[in-house]
Specification:
Layout (H helix, E strand, L loop, with lengths): L2 E6 L5 H19 L7 E6 L17 E8 L4 H19 L6 E8 L23
Parallel strand pairs: 1-2, 3-4
Antiparallel strand pairs: 1-3
Helix pairs in contact: 1-2
Length: 130
């Protein structure tokens, strides 16, 4: 059950968030070879000066992403997802890619729990609810 967390230093309209999370979820499913029912997404909005990244000017928009995923994805999959997410953030939130930063944290499947069960290790094109 990936938990995809987006921290941004601006306020976002609900309709933009809705389009954003749907695109993020679909992109994850496609790149990582899984369905969408177990993908969790958080958007945290902060005031302008409450997020920083060293290469950005203080008044610029910033997006920090923490992506908690299960072990088993290749570096190529993670890199593809990172670049696609940067484009999605730029499109929907208008944050320049140089002002975005992504951290992947990988966990064994047993660290992810749904009411039905905890997840097994990742397998390509899986359905974690089965």
């Amino acid at each position: 059950m990936p938990h995809l967390q987006f921290e941004i230093n601006q306020k976002i309209e609900s309709r933009i968030k809705d389009r954003f999370v749907n695109e993020i979820r679909d992109c994850y499913s496609q790149v990582m070879g899984t369905n969408t029912g177990h993908i969790a997404i958080s958007i945290r909005e902060y005031d302008k000066y409450n997020l920083t990244i060293g290469r950005a000017e203080p008044e610029q928009d910033i997006c920090l992403m923490n992506l908690d995923i299960r072990d088993g994805r290749t570096i190529d999959q993670r890199r593809e997802l990172a670049l696609k997410y940067m484009d999605i953030v730029k499109t929907h939130f208008r944050v320049e890619t140089k002002n975005q930063y992504i951290t992947f944290t990988q966990h064994p499947g047993e660290d992810f729990h749904l009411v039905e069960k905890y997840l097994a290790g990742w397998e390509a094109n899986e359905n974690p609810f089965v």
